[in-house]
Specification:
By secondary structure, the protein is of the alpha/beta class. Helix content is about 45%, strand content about 20%. The protein folds into two domains: about 260 residues, P-loop containing nucleotide triphosphate hydrolases (Rossmann fold, 3-Layer(aba) Sandwich); about 60 residues, Ubiquitin-like (UB roll) (Roll). Helix 1 runs parallel beside helix 8, helix 4 runs antiparallel to helix 5 and helix 4 runs parallel beside helix 7. The protein is flat.
Length: about 350
Protein backbone atom coordinates (compact mmCIF):
# COMPACT_ATOMS: atom_id res chain seq x y z
CA UNK A 1 0.00 0.00 0.00
CA UNK A 2 1.45 3.34 -1.08
CA UNK A 3 0.34 6.77 0.15
CA UNK A 4 1.55 9.95 -1.55
CA UNK A 5 2.14 13.13 0.49
CA UNK A 6 1.60 16.40 -1.38
CA UNK A 7 1.02 20.02 -0.43
CA UNK A 8 1.94 23.65 -1.04
CA UNK A 9 5.56 24.71 -0.62
CA UNK A 10 6.54 25.16 3.05
CA UNK A 11 3.37 23.41 4.25
CA UNK A 12 5.42 20.99 6.37
CA UNK A 13 4.80 17.92 4.20
CA UNK A 14 8.46 16.84 4.22
CA UNK A 15 8.66 17.40 7.99
CA UNK A 16 5.57 15.18 8.34
CA UNK A 17 7.10 12.55 6.05
CA UNK A 18 10.23 12.50 8.22
CA UNK A 19 8.14 12.23 11.39
CA UNK A 20 6.22 9.28 9.95
CA UNK A 21 9.14 7.36 8.50
CA UNK A 22 12.09 8.38 10.67
CA UNK A 23 14.03 9.30 7.54
CA UNK A 24 16.18 12.41 7.31
CA UNK A 25 16.23 14.88 4.46
CA UNK A 26 17.39 13.28 1.20
CA UNK A 27 18.94 16.08 -0.83
CA UNK A 28 19.79 13.69 -3.66
CA UNK A 29 16.17 12.64 -4.23
CA UNK A 30 14.37 13.91 -7.29
CA UNK A 31 10.64 13.74 -7.67
CA UNK A 32 9.88 11.63 -4.61
CA UNK A 33 11.28 10.13 -1.44
CA UNK A 34 10.00 6.81 -0.06
CA UNK A 35 9.75 5.52 3.49
CA UNK A 36 8.14 2.38 4.91
CA UNK A 37 6.11 2.54 8.12
CA UNK A 38 5.16 -0.48 10.22
CA UNK A 39 1.47 -0.52 11.10
CA UNK A 40 1.22 -0.63 14.92
CA UNK A 41 -0.78 -3.67 16.02
CA UNK A 42 -0.81 -4.75 19.68
CA UNK A 43 -2.45 -8.03 18.62
CA UNK A 44 0.71 -9.05 16.76
CA UNK A 45 2.81 -8.13 19.78
CA UNK A 46 0.66 -10.28 22.08
CA UNK A 47 0.62 -13.26 19.72
CA UNK A 48 4.39 -13.04 19.35
CA UNK A 49 4.74 -13.34 23.13
CA UNK A 50 2.44 -16.38 23.12
CA UNK A 51 3.97 -18.26 20.18
CA UNK A 52 7.57 -17.00 20.50
CA UNK A 53 8.13 -17.24 16.70
CA UNK A 54 11.41 -16.86 14.86
CA UNK A 55 9.96 -13.82 13.11
CA UNK A 56 7.34 -11.15 13.83
CA UNK A 57 5.97 -9.18 10.86
CA UNK A 58 3.70 -6.16 11.02
CA UNK A 59 1.74 -4.84 8.05
CA UNK A 60 3.40 -1.94 6.22
CA UNK A 61 2.46 1.34 4.59
CA UNK A 62 4.81 3.07 2.15
CA UNK A 63 4.67 6.86 2.32
CA UNK A 64 5.95 8.86 -0.64
CA UNK A 65 7.04 12.47 -0.18
CA UNK A 66 6.46 14.05 -3.59
CA UNK A 67 9.26 16.58 -3.55
CA UNK A 68 8.65 18.55 -6.72
CA UNK A 69 7.31 22.05 -6.10
CA UNK A 70 4.05 22.05 -8.00
CA UNK A 71 1.70 24.32 -6.16
CA UNK A 72 2.69 27.78 -7.30
CA UNK A 73 0.22 28.29 -10.12
CA UNK A 74 2.26 26.21 -12.57
CA UNK A 75 0.49 22.89 -12.19
CA UNK A 76 2.00 19.52 -11.36
CA UNK A 77 5.03 18.54 -13.41
CA UNK A 78 4.82 15.25 -15.34
CA UNK A 79 7.09 13.36 -12.93
CA UNK A 80 4.99 14.32 -9.92
CA UNK A 81 1.78 13.38 -11.73
CA UNK A 82 3.24 10.00 -12.68
CA UNK A 83 4.26 9.35 -9.06
CA UNK A 84 0.82 10.30 -7.75
CA UNK A 85 -0.91 7.92 -10.14
CA UNK A 86 0.95 4.95 -8.68
CA UNK A 87 -0.36 5.62 -5.15
CA UNK A 88 -3.37 4.05 -3.44
CA UNK A 89 -4.24 7.24 -1.54
CA UNK A 90 -3.09 10.83 -1.12
CA UNK A 91 -2.39 13.02 1.88
CA UNK A 92 -2.66 16.77 1.28
CA UNK A 93 -0.73 18.78 3.87
CA UNK A 94 -1.77 22.40 4.40
CA UNK A 95 -0.44 24.79 7.02
CA UNK A 96 -2.10 27.21 9.40
CA UNK A 97 1.01 29.49 9.59
CA UNK A 98 2.51 30.99 12.73
CA UNK A 99 2.49 34.75 13.14
CA UNK A 100 -1.09 35.30 11.98
CA UNK A 101 -4.39 35.75 13.75
CA UNK A 102 -6.80 32.84 14.02
CA UNK A 103 -8.92 33.96 11.06
CA UNK A 104 -5.85 34.58 8.87
CA UNK A 105 -4.33 31.18 9.72
CA UNK A 106 -7.60 29.50 8.88
CA UNK A 107 -7.92 31.38 5.60
CA UNK A 108 -4.34 30.51 4.61
CA UNK A 109 -4.92 26.80 5.24
CA UNK A 110 -8.17 26.81 3.28
CA UNK A 111 -6.51 28.61 0.36
CA UNK A 112 -3.67 26.07 0.38
CA UNK A 113 -6.19 23.24 0.17
CA UNK A 114 -8.19 24.98 -2.54
CA UNK A 115 -5.05 25.52 -4.65
CA UNK A 116 -4.03 21.85 -4.48
CA UNK A 117 -7.55 20.57 -5.16
CA UNK A 118 -7.84 22.89 -8.15
CA UNK A 119 -4.60 21.56 -9.63
CA UNK A 120 -5.68 17.96 -9.17
CA UNK A 121 -9.03 18.74 -10.77
CA UNK A 122 -7.43 20.51 -13.74
CA UNK A 123 -5.06 17.59 -14.26
CA UNK A 124 -8.03 15.19 -14.42
CA UNK A 125 -9.97 17.59 -16.67
CA UNK A 126 -7.15 17.55 -19.23
CA UNK A 127 -7.22 13.73 -19.27
CA UNK A 128 -11.01 13.64 -19.68
CA UNK A 129 -10.94 16.27 -22.42
CA UNK A 130 -8.31 14.40 -24.43
CA UNK A 131 -10.22 11.15 -24.06
CA UNK A 132 -13.43 12.83 -25.23
CA UNK A 133 -11.66 14.02 -28.37
CA UNK A 134 -10.54 10.46 -29.13
CA UNK A 135 -14.01 9.05 -28.44
CA UNK A 136 -15.47 11.33 -31.11
CA UNK A 137 -13.03 9.90 -33.68
CA UNK A 138 -13.02 6.20 -32.83
CA UNK A 139 -15.37 3.47 -31.65
CA UNK A 140 -15.53 2.71 -27.95
CA UNK A 141 -17.88 1.04 -25.51
CA UNK A 142 -21.01 2.82 -24.40
CA UNK A 143 -19.87 2.55 -20.78
CA UNK A 144 -16.54 4.17 -21.60
CA UNK A 145 -18.26 7.01 -23.43
CA UNK A 146 -20.75 7.68 -20.62
CA UNK A 147 -18.05 7.47 -17.93
CA UNK A 148 -15.83 10.05 -19.64
CA UNK A 149 -18.73 12.35 -20.49
CA UNK A 150 -19.93 12.28 -16.88
CA UNK A 151 -16.42 12.73 -15.54
CA UNK A 152 -15.78 15.67 -17.85
CA UNK A 153 -19.06 17.32 -16.83
CA UNK A 154 -18.28 16.96 -13.12
CA UNK A 155 -14.69 18.16 -13.45
CA UNK A 156 -15.83 21.16 -15.47
CA UNK A 157 -17.93 22.10 -12.45
CA UNK A 158 -14.85 21.64 -10.21
CA UNK A 159 -16.26 18.51 -8.57
CA UNK A 160 -13.71 15.84 -7.57
CA UNK A 161 -14.69 12.46 -8.98
CA UNK A 162 -14.64 10.75 -5.57
CA UNK A 163 -17.97 12.46 -4.75
CA UNK A 164 -19.57 11.71 -8.13
CA UNK A 165 -21.86 8.68 -8.57
CA UNK A 166 -21.24 6.50 -11.61
CA UNK A 167 -23.13 3.49 -12.95
CA UNK A 168 -21.51 0.09 -12.18
CA UNK A 169 -20.32 -0.39 -15.78
CA UNK A 170 -18.81 3.11 -15.73
CA UNK A 171 -17.03 2.32 -12.45
CA UNK A 172 -15.40 -0.64 -14.20
CA UNK A 173 -13.71 1.52 -16.86
CA UNK A 174 -12.75 4.57 -14.79
CA UNK A 175 -9.65 2.96 -13.15
CA UNK A 176 -8.07 2.84 -16.63
CA UNK A 177 -7.64 6.61 -16.53
CA UNK A 178 -6.01 6.93 -13.07
CA UNK A 179 -7.95 10.08 -12.22
CA UNK A 180 -6.34 11.75 -9.20
CA UNK A 181 -9.58 13.18 -7.80
CA UNK A 182 -10.92 9.61 -7.57
CA UNK A 183 -8.18 8.65 -5.11
CA UNK A 184 -9.07 8.42 -1.43
CA UNK A 185 -7.55 11.53 0.14
CA UNK A 186 -6.85 12.76 3.67
CA UNK A 187 -6.16 16.40 4.55
CA UNK A 188 -3.54 17.00 7.25
CA UNK A 189 -3.84 20.43 8.84
CA UNK A 190 -0.37 21.40 10.10
CA UNK A 191 -1.01 23.63 13.13
CA UNK A 192 0.97 25.34 15.88
CA UNK A 193 1.99 23.25 18.88
CA UNK A 194 -0.64 25.07 20.98
CA UNK A 195 -3.35 23.96 18.51
CA UNK A 196 -2.24 20.31 18.29
CA UNK A 197 -5.26 18.16 17.44
CA UNK A 198 -7.59 21.12 16.85
CA UNK A 199 -9.09 21.08 13.35
CA UNK A 200 -10.58 24.18 11.72
CA UNK A 201 -14.39 23.81 11.48
CA UNK A 202 -14.50 25.70 8.17
CA UNK A 203 -11.64 23.69 6.67
CA UNK A 204 -13.23 20.50 7.97
CA UNK A 205 -16.57 21.33 6.38
CA UNK A 206 -14.98 22.24 3.03
CA UNK A 207 -12.85 19.09 3.01
CA UNK A 208 -15.83 16.90 3.99
CA UNK A 209 -17.84 18.32 1.10
CA UNK A 210 -15.06 17.08 -1.18
CA UNK A 211 -15.01 13.64 0.44
CA UNK A 212 -11.83 14.16 2.47
CA UNK A 213 -11.42 13.67 6.25
CA UNK A 214 -9.10 16.02 8.19
CA UNK A 215 -6.39 15.18 10.73
CA UNK A 216 -4.91 18.11 12.68
CA UNK A 217 -1.36 17.86 14.03
CA UNK A 218 1.84 19.85 14.52
CA UNK A 219 4.35 18.40 12.05
CA UNK A 220 7.40 19.94 13.75
CA UNK A 221 6.37 18.65 17.17
CA UNK A 222 5.66 15.19 15.73
CA UNK A 223 9.08 15.27 14.08
CA UNK A 224 10.70 15.96 17.45
CA UNK A 225 8.67 13.19 19.11
CA UNK A 226 9.71 10.69 16.43
CA UNK A 227 13.39 11.34 17.25
CA UNK A 228 12.99 10.42 20.92
CA UNK A 229 13.96 7.03 22.29
CA UNK A 230 10.92 4.73 22.67
CA UNK A 231 11.11 4.82 26.47
CA UNK A 232 11.05 8.64 26.44
CA UNK A 233 8.36 8.99 23.78
CA UNK A 234 5.44 7.73 25.86
CA UNK A 235 6.19 10.02 28.78
CA UNK A 236 6.62 13.04 26.48
CA UNK A 237 3.28 12.32 24.77
CA UNK A 238 1.54 12.10 28.15
CA UNK A 239 3.04 15.42 29.26
CA UNK A 240 1.72 17.07 26.10
CA UNK A 241 -1.68 15.43 26.43
CA UNK A 242 -1.28 13.62 23.09
CA UNK A 243 -2.86 10.17 23.06
CA UNK A 244 -0.73 8.71 20.28
CA UNK A 245 1.90 9.89 17.77
CA UNK A 246 1.03 11.10 14.27
CA UNK A 247 2.29 7.86 12.75
CA UNK A 248 -0.38 5.83 14.54
CA UNK A 249 -3.18 8.34 13.89
CA UNK A 250 -2.42 8.77 10.22
CA UNK A 251 -1.96 5.07 9.52
CA UNK A 252 -5.29 4.35 11.20
CA UNK A 253 -6.93 7.13 9.16
CA UNK A 254 -5.50 5.61 5.96
CA UNK A 255 -6.83 2.15 6.91
CA UNK A 256 -10.29 3.61 7.58
CA UNK A 257 -10.25 5.63 4.36
CA UNK A 258 -9.24 2.63 2.24
CA UNK A 259 -11.64 0.31 4.12
CA UNK A 260 -8.80 -2.00 5.14
CA UNK A 261 -8.54 -4.64 7.87
CA UNK A 262 -5.85 -7.01 9.11
CA UNK A 263 -6.08 -10.76 9.57
CA UNK A 264 -3.42 -12.68 11.45
CA UNK A 265 -1.40 -15.85 10.96
CA UNK A 266 0.55 -17.59 13.73
CA UNK A 267 3.09 -20.34 14.19
CA UNK A 268 6.59 -21.19 15.38
CA UNK A 269 8.17 -19.62 12.31
CA UNK A 270 6.24 -16.36 12.09
CA UNK A 271 3.43 -14.29 13.55
CA UNK A 272 2.20 -11.87 10.91
CA UNK A 273 -0.50 -9.30 10.12
CA UNK A 274 -1.86 -9.30 6.56
CA UNK A 275 -3.83 -6.45 5.01
CA UNK A 276 -6.95 -6.88 2.90
CA UNK A 277 -10.07 -4.90 2.07
CA UNK A 278 -13.08 -5.25 4.32
CA UNK A 279 -15.47 -7.75 2.73
CA UNK A 280 -12.74 -9.95 1.23
CA UNK A 281 -13.71 -13.66 0.98
CA UNK A 282 -11.39 -16.22 2.56
CA UNK A 283 -10.08 -17.67 -0.70
CA UNK A 284 -9.03 -14.25 -2.02
CA UNK A 285 -7.51 -13.35 1.37
CA UNK A 286 -5.41 -16.52 1.12
CA UNK A 287 -3.90 -15.08 -2.04
CA UNK A 288 -2.39 -12.28 0.03
CA UNK A 289 -0.08 -14.91 1.46
CA UNK A 290 0.62 -16.86 -1.74
CA UNK A 291 -1.17 -17.45 -5.03
CA UNK A 292 -0.79 -21.22 -4.55
CA UNK A 293 -2.82 -21.06 -1.34
CA UNK A 294 -5.61 -19.22 -3.12
CA UNK A 295 -5.54 -21.61 -6.08
CA UNK A 296 -5.56 -24.75 -3.92
CA UNK A 297 -7.81 -23.41 -1.17
CA UNK A 298 -9.64 -26.13 0.82
CA UNK A 299 -10.83 -24.37 3.97
CA UNK A 300 -9.92 -21.72 6.54
CA UNK A 301 -9.47 -22.58 10.21
CA UNK A 302 -10.56 -19.44 12.06
CA UNK A 303 -10.65 -18.09 15.60
CA UNK A 304 -11.07 -14.41 16.39
CA UNK A 305 -8.27 -12.68 18.26
CA UNK A 306 -10.64 -11.68 21.07
CA UNK A 307 -11.86 -15.29 21.49
CA UNK A 308 -8.26 -16.53 21.48
CA UNK A 309 -7.29 -14.12 24.25
CA UNK A 310 -10.44 -14.76 26.29
CA UNK A 311 -9.94 -18.54 26.10
CA UNK A 312 -6.26 -18.33 26.97
CA UNK A 313 -4.85 -20.02 23.86
CA UNK A 314 -5.66 -22.03 20.75
CA UNK A 315 -6.30 -25.34 22.54
CA UNK A 316 -8.64 -23.66 25.00
CA UNK A 317 -10.43 -21.81 22.18
CA UNK A 318 -11.10 -25.14 20.46
CA UNK A 319 -12.47 -26.63 23.69
CA UNK A 320 -14.73 -23.58 24.09
CA UNK A 321 -16.13 -24.07 20.57
CA UNK A 322 -14.61 -20.85 19.26
CA UNK A 323 -12.53 -22.59 16.56
CA UNK A 324 -14.39 -22.66 13.21
CA UNK A 325 -13.94 -24.23 9.78
CA UNK A 326 -14.95 -21.79 7.04
CA UNK A 327 -15.28 -22.15 3.27
CA UNK A 328 -14.01 -19.99 0.44
CA UNK A 329 -16.94 -17.54 0.60
CA UNK A 330 -16.43 -16.73 4.28
CA UNK A 331 -15.88 -12.97 4.67
CA UNK A 332 -12.68 -12.35 6.61
CA UNK A 333 -13.07 -10.10 9.66
CA UNK A 334 -10.57 -7.74 11.26
CA UNK A 335 -8.55 -9.66 13.86
CA UNK A 336 -9.31 -13.14 12.54
CA UNK A 337 -6.51 -15.60 13.26
CA UNK A 338 -6.51 -17.89 10.23
CA UNK A 339 -4.78 -21.07 9.19
CA UNK A 340 -5.44 -21.83 5.51
CA UNK A 341 -5.62 -25.45 4.37
CA UNK A 342 -4.80 -25.96 0.70
CA UNK A 343 -3.64 -28.51 -1.85
CA UNK A 344 -1.81 -27.88 -5.14
Amino acid sequence: MKVGIIGPSFSGKTTLFQALTGKGEDTSARGSNLGVVKVPDPRVEHLARVFNPKKKTLAEVTFVDLLAGAHEGKGFDPQTLASMKTTDALVIVVEAPEGLGDAERDAAARKGLSDVVTELTLSDLVIAEKRLERIRKEKTSEADKRAIENAYAALSEEKPLRIVSFAPDEENVLPNYQFLTRKPTIVVLNVREADQGKASPKLGAEAAALGMPVVALCAQLEHEISRLAPEERGEFLRELGIGEPAQDRLVRAVYTLLNLISFLTTGEDEVRAWTCERGTPAQRAAGKIHSDIERGFIRAEVVTYDDFVAAGGMTEAKKAGKFRLEGKEYVVQDGDIINFRFNV
